[in-house]
Amino acid sequence: MSTFFAVLLIAHVLFGLVGVMASFRVTFLLIKSTLPIPALIRASMYAFFSYLISWFSGGWYYWKYYGNIVKPKIVGGEFSWAHLVFMEAKEHVFLFMPFATLCIALMLWLKADALQQESSLRRKLMFFSFFVTLLAVIITLSGILITGGAR
């Protein structure tokens, strides 16, 4: 693997993990009785940009390296299901992540006052944020499983 592809893979993993942590932070800041709006907006923007960078770096890595070199090894090996099930699901679910976190960031930015006053709106955003965080954790675990299939 060339240095460029190694950097892309590292960026994909690290920015994905930062996104997971930022999503987790948003979810749990939404639980507080008084919302720390600036911290929520910052965390949601970290999540959005982290997932976006992870999305592009992982996509470029997949397009130029994984699909031609790693994928045939996994599919032809003992753990072909690692790609056939988890990578396929991961690819499609991850497309949703930057857009979902952008929606959360926009809600926090544009509806901060309403979120402070309307507990039902805050609860809905908290559940959506929790869902995004849960998906991010599942995608991360899927990536670990796929990496194991490649070895």
- Count of separate structural domains: 1
The assigned structural class equals: mainly alpha
- Low-pLDDT stretches are none
Count the E strands.
Answer: 0
- How many helix segments? 6
Portion in beta strands: under 5%
Proportion in helices: over 70%
Largest sheet: none
Radius of gyration: 17 Å
Order of helices and strands: HHHHHH
Please report the distance between the alpha carbons of the first and last residues. Answer: 14 Å
The average pLDDT value, as a whole number, equals 88
Question: Which term fits the overall shape?
Answer: elongated
Compact summary:
The chain is mainly alpha-helical and 151 residues long. 88% of the residues lie in helices and 0% in strands.
Describe it:
- The structure is a single chain.
- With 151 residues, this protein is mainly α.
- It is 88% helix and 0% strand.
- It has one domain (3-150).
- It starts with a helix and ends with a helix.
- The mean pLDDT is 88.
Tags for this model:
mainly alpha, 88% helix, 6 helices, single chain, 151 residues, elongated
Topology, element by element:
Elements: H1 3-29, H2 37-75, H3 80-94, H4 97-110, H5 112-117, H6 119-150
